[in-house]
Amino acid sequence: MNGKKKKKVLVVGELNVDLIGTGLQTFPVLGREIIAQEMVLTLGSSSAILVCGLARLGVPVAFISKVGKDDFGKYCVDALESKKVKTDNVIRDAKLRTGLTVSLNFRDDKAQVTYPGAIPHLYYKDIPPKTLRQNDHLHVSSFFLQDGLLNSFPQLFQDAKQLGMSTSLDPNCDNRNQWNSGIWKCLEYVDVLLLNEMEAINIAKAKSVNRALEIFAQKVPTVVIKLGSKGSLAKSRGQVIQLPAFKMKPIDSTGAGDSFDAGFLFGHLNSFDLRKSLTVANACGALSTQGLGGTTTQADWDEIQRFLRKQAQSL
Q1: Residue 3: pLDDT above 70?
Q2: Euclidean distance between CA atoms 64 and 87, whole angstroms
Q3: Farthest CA pair distance, the chain
Q4: pLDDT tens digits, residue range 227-266?
Q5: Measured distance CA(290)–CA(276) in Å, rounded
Q6: Which H helix or E strand runs over 259?
């Protein structure tokens, strides 16, 4: 953009494949078979969908993760490389199996079953200091899923800040429903916090999304809360902005929040103001729902600008 030196992003996160079934009319019942209109195997995981979204927007991005030395692991690495994501630090461990998420999509919601596989086995020692130094921004997704790093995340974020990197975090869901695991120790080193409504309320132990926003804003310079079909809400350095979602008929909402994150971080790294970053993020999230899987319809910068012009949004 305008010939400026592009900031390099390093993402530390989980990696798995998604098996996505759509067009299910009823929830599965024990002892019976139901029919899906379509079933696809695709690249999964919040972190991978985010890195692909950033790469699609032209951001130089590297990924640190761990998979098994199996067919699913090869599938993940090949898919990332096809999206121009640097995978030198994706470790393939022969003792582990690659994770898998089965996602059953219904008209208004989805149910997911995840086999974590290699995901909990990424450790602080797997993150080369040299790789941190080579990048300008550190992002972590799926905080609660990464058991091997949970105790080390505060140290990792502190390392990044000491190197002069900017930082961001999207904790995602806590499947144990505990909503802590040391996350508050990380927040003092986080520049951008991205959450959905449920995550924000649970982590902040707040009664409303607005109260959660205020609690996080006392710790973090920029807080963004994704509100699904209601749009998004953000606070940065005293300024609060809420924007409605773009009206789209979703085909598959898998990873829409991660594509949203990619759009917001793209704006943030390019010094867009809060409204513009949020508008781009909403557009990235909306367009990603127009195909099966999290990465098939992620937009590049030209497509985002065309979409926003069509939506009569002024950038």
Answers
A1: no
A2: 7
A3: 60
A4: 988 999 999 999 999 999 998 888 777 788 999 999 999 9
A5: 22
A6: helix 256-269
Digit-coded pLDDT (tens) for 192-205: 999 999 999 999 99
Is residue 1 domain-resident?
A: no
Q: What CATH number does residue 20 fall under?
A: 3.40.1190.20
The boundaries of the domain holding residue 122 are: 9-310
**270 closest CA partner among 297, 236, 237, 301:** 301
pLDDT at 314: 46
Span 212-224, pLDDT tens digits:
999 999 999 999 9
- Residue 153's contacts (CB-CB under 8 Å, 6 or more residues apart) are 140, 143, 146, 182, 183, 185, 186
Q: Is the pLDDT score of 52 beyond 60?
A: yes
pLDDT beyond 60 at 11 = yes
Residue 3 falls within a domain, yes or no? Answer: no
Work out how many domains the chain is built from and give that number: 1
What is the side-by-side strand order in the sheet with 38-44? 38-44, 16-22, 99-105, 110-115
Can you tell me the distance from the alpha carbon of 89 to that of 54, in angstroms, rounded to the nearest whole number?
17
Distance between CA 135 and CA 165 in Å, rounded?
Answer: 7
- CA-nearest of 300, 280, 303 to 232 is 280
What's the CA gap between 194 and 107, in Å, rounded?
A: 26
> Does a structural domain hold residue 84?
yes
Distance set, CA 55 to CA 51, 88, 197, 291 (Å): 6, 15, 26, 18
The one-letter amino acid at 313: Q
* Domain presence at residue 315: no
Please state, as a whole number, how many other Cβ atoms lie within 10 Å of the Cβ of residue 242: 16
- Could you tell me if 225 and 266 are in contact, meaning their C-beta atoms sit under 8 angstroms apart? no
Q: Under 8 Å CB-to-CB from 83, ≥6 apart: which residues?
A: 51, 52, 55, 56, 295
Mean pLDDT value across residues 104-129: 90
